[in-house]
Amino acid sequence: MNDLLDEQPIIVKDTIRFQWWVILIWLAVFAIGYLFRMMHWPFHGIIRIIGSGGFMAYSLSFLILAKPRTAGIIVSNCLSLLWVLIVIWGIFFNGGYPFNAGGAGALGLAFGFLFTVHIVSLYFMKKNRA
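-> structure tokens emitted (130 positions)
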């Protein structure tokens, strides 16, 4: 009689994997936007919008397409939801910090575009590996 623990686990290599370096790139863009804000340089809002939109798009596309939802995917989606709540709180109750309504609209557009790019690329990667 074989127990479940006696068998060797099968590692599936044809699935898409959550890449931490992509998350770090989007977080670096976001951090550079805050560095621009502290230095009072122009375009800090646009850089933060692109960085946060890319982070949210990448994490949500993996939540939709990846079957084993790992802790990294769940944590990154929780951080994305927290950022959306902070932006909404800033619009209504915090005088437009970190973004006003126009910035939130731009964040939505950046998220929509980057989400489409991520989901299509991940879909084709998954389809080609199957």
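The helical segments are 20-38, 44-65, 71-92, 101-129.
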